[in-house]
Structures are given as C-alpha cells and as structure tokens.
Amino acid sequence: MNKIKVLIIDDEKLARDLLKNYLTKDSRLEILGECSNGFEGVLAIQELKPDLVFLDIQMPKITGFEMLELLSDPPVIVFSTAYDEFAIRAFETNAVDYLLKPYPLERVQIAVEKAIKRIQSGTGNKEEMEILSQAHEENSGLLTRIVVKSGSKIRIIPVETIEYLESEDDFVMIYCKEGHFLKQKTMKYFETHLDPKKFIRIHRSCLVNTSQLAEIQQYGKESWILLTKQGAKLKISKSGYLALKQFLAEGMDN
Amino acid sequence: MEQTSILNRYSLVFYWIVPILMGIIQASFNLYFEILPWGISLVDGAVYGFLLGTFGMAIWFVVRYNSPEKKSFAQLLTSHLSAAIILSLAWVYSAAFITRTLLPDPKYLAYQENQLSNRIFIGFIFYALMVMVFYLYIFYLKNREKTEREKELKQEVREAVLSALKSQINPHFLFNSLNSIASLTLSNPEKAHEMVIALSDFMRYSLRKQYSEMVALEEEINHVRLYLQIEKIRFGAKMSYSFQIEPECLNCQIPTLLLQPLFENAVKYGVYEASEPVEVSLTACKEGIHTILTITNNFDSEAAPVKGEGIGLKNVQERLRLVYNSNNLLGIKDGDGKFVVTIYLPCNKQPTKD
Predict the structure, then answer these.
(1) Which of A71-75, A108-112, B175-179, B192-196 is least confident?
(2) Residue A173 — φ and ψ, nearest 5°?
C-alpha cells in the first residue's frame, strides 16, 4: 500500500512540531512538508497533491476556510483549532475530523484512522467541505473581505472596494477597483452575506454597492439604468428599483 | 465645573431669599420704630431689597473668575474689595435715585441722607456673606464632581481588570499557549518550563485579589514583558520585542493594566496577521512633568482589514480622561507600515509610601 501523503498548515511552528512529532509515529504516513500560511498552503496543495491536510483555521492573511474556497479539488482535511466553538459544532456532523488544541496523541490517531478510511473509500470531499465552510460563514456573520484567485495570485478584496457583483452561470463576477474576479459562489450567497445596508440587489443577476451609486436614469416605461461612479451601466429591474427607492428614502430620513 | 452656574431655577430661588428678607427686615424696622409711615416703608424696603438682589448676582461672577486655586491672596483681596465698593455704591445710589423719584417727601429725603453710610455698610456685609456662600457652593459642586469621578474610576478599574481577565481566558491566547507548551515538553523541556512559569506569573498579576487604581510603571512593564515573552515563544522568529526605558520613569504611577490592551492590539494586528517578522517596542522617557510612553509595531500593510480595531484604544483613552481629566493624552499614528501609540502620562509626584 502506498503511504498516505500528509501536509501540515499552521502559522505556529510549535504547533506544527507537535503534529509532526505525533504523525511520524505512524508508519503509514509520509509527511510532505509544512506551510505557515494559507498562500503557501494553496501552492503546496496544488504542487504536492497531498491526500490529507492538517489545517489550522486562524492564520495570517487568509483563514483555513478561505484557503479551502480557493481549491477546486481539496484533499481530505482535518481541522485544528484552539477556539471557535461555533465552527466546532458544525464540524461534529460534517468534518472528517477536527482537533482541539492542545490535543493528545490518541486523539490525532483517531483523526488519522478516520481520514484513512475516507481516503480509501474514495468518497468525494468537496461537497462536505462546502457545507462546512458555509456553516462557518453563517456563524461568522457578514463578510468583510472576499478571497479570490486570479491566475497564480491570490487576492483579498475588502468588501468596501467592490463596485458591483454580477452572476455568470454558476459563478459570480466581482467588479472592484483592481479589476474583475470570478468566484465560485451563488448570487444568493452574496446577497445574504454582504451587509444589506450597503449592497442592494438591483436585478436578478446584479448586486451593487450603494456607495458606488452615481445616477439612476429612466430608460423605458418600467426599466431603469444605474450608473456607477466608475461609469458602468447596470440594468435595474422593477423590484430592484423599489429596493433602491426605499434605500434612498431611508438615507434622506437620517 | 465650567457649566455650573447660580443662574438655574433652583439656586436662583434660594438666592433671592436673602435680599427679599433684607428688604422685609428694613421695612419692618422702619415701621416698628415708627421712623417712616407704612407706605413709604414698604416702597423703600421693596426697592432696596430688589436692587440688592439684582446687583448681588454680579458677585457670583466675581467669585467664579477668582478661583482661590488660580489667584494669589493679594489678587483675591484686591478684586473682592474693589467689587464690594463698586457694587455697594452702585446699589445705594441707584436705590436712592429711584426712591427719591417715587417718594418726593422731604422727611423721607432727610432720612435717606442720614442712612447713607449705614446702607453702604449693609452692602458690604451682604457682599461678604454672599462671597462666603458662593465659595462654599462652588466647593460643594467640585466635591460632588470629584466623588462622582472617583466612583466612575473605580468602575473603570473593575472593567479593566475584567477585560484583562477575559483576554487571558480568551481561548485563542490560552489554548494556543498551552498547545505550545505541549509541543515544547517533547522537543525542548527547558523552554516549556520557562513558558509555564511566564504564563503563571502573567495570569497571577490580573488574578490578584486587591487592585489599586495606580501602580508603578515598572510593575506594568514587567507584566507586559511576560505577555510578550509568552507570545514570542509561540511565534518565534516572526516576532521580536524591545524596551527602552529611562530609569527615572520607572517610579512613575500609571493606571493599573493600562498598557496590556495596547500590547494585545499590537500583537493581534501586527503579529497575528503578518507573515513577515514584526517588532513590538516600548520606549519611555521623561519630558517635563510628563512621562512619554511610545508603543510601536510594524504591520503588514497588505493584510486585509480585521474586525474590531479601535475598541481597545477607545477604552484606554476613556481611562486616561477619567484619571487625569484630560482628553489629549493619547496619540495614534498609523502610516508607513507602522502603528504608533503615544501616551503622555502626567507624572509630577513621586509615589507616596505609607
């Protein structure tokens, strides 16, 4: 049997050392390497193609969850975390496993057994990971930033810099100062995870940042066009127009 | 203190009791000893009483702008003497002018001429009485304000202690530290030993039973040093820290646990979010009556914004305001990849030892 290839991603060296110490005791495992942040993690996963990743959640720049969003075919994941009890509750039903720091050797061995079973049965991991990261996002409230991949680069877009979002089939195109980026999420997801006081759905396929609004023009009897500060023209539907009107009226009251 | 005035409704009612009483006494005196007929007595008492009250209100302002803490005794004496003379003369002569126009009775005029020096004397007495009452009133207000501020301060200390505790039982800090210790017991037991002791000492400081409002800067610095020592073990080469303290600052008194939230911020937004090494530093130097504390950390300017920034800083500002009654003791500079917090700590007295 081939050895199971393992990657460790954690920003603290001592935490990585502890895991390495535990994992080297298991001869079925081969440790490919370790990464200290999510950027390195994405590259290493694409390059080394590990079967199993031990992933810390709270890391500099991008979290473990955000890192996972960037992978199209993620390996089996075991999360490790020192806190975040909400996420933990979600993992209990969905995760391959999660480890609470500090963890004993026996606990890691259980996680490894589960992971090996999962790898050998060959069941897909992608769907479960999505449920997982959704559960985390629901608990963490509104988005403050969105992590996207453009070419080989990873970009962090603060939500304030977004101009508008437009749906394209199964994806959403995010338009912001630096250009536009594709993200594999639904419009519904962004509608519920962006601050409804700042982002308004003006059309079935378009969510606009109200601070970027420059002008609204009547176009036909029941159609309007919105001009953003950067000069983009966006179609407004009837219900979108009502939502905009309500937003502007509230703005005047205050 | 600046906003308080005698000119609100309640104090004004109390204030007018005195001049009205003096008018009544004057009228009754003249009636009882049959010096003047009753009509003239009443008008005379009413006019003098009313004008006494009106001019008397000016005394409040003289008292307000002659605070005993700011003026010398000679200055106080000169302003009150001149105000007493001016106000008494103004009172007596304006009252005489009005009563003479109202009551052109030769007998009354003679009486008034006779009474002139007596009346001026009464003006002086009234002035002295009012000055005393007003100074007492101001003293009372200041005292009340002081006790209120002391109460608020005690509350603030409790809150600072609570939030310090909260950050230590903050699972992120505690369990990651314990995880580091778990790791070190296998790889480097001596370092594990060092970290357990640092963590214990660190927690002991905020779990003490007795809290005083102020501690010596030296004690606060030792506490912060433990915190940085623990984080340094966790983050290794990613983090470094330095202290540059002038020895004469060490005795300076500082509000308890004022510095810890600032260092927590520095580590949270500097070290946690960066992939490059971050340095946290503290300098303290004496400048006049102030000890200037500067806390600096560099940060990764590319790191995306994190939630929650600013609350810790606001709390520190609020505490400085309560303790020193001043709003401009905290400076924040954010730029060039550096975050700098400066505290101007008033430190003019040596700690009292009892």
Answers:
(1) A71-75
(2) -95, 125
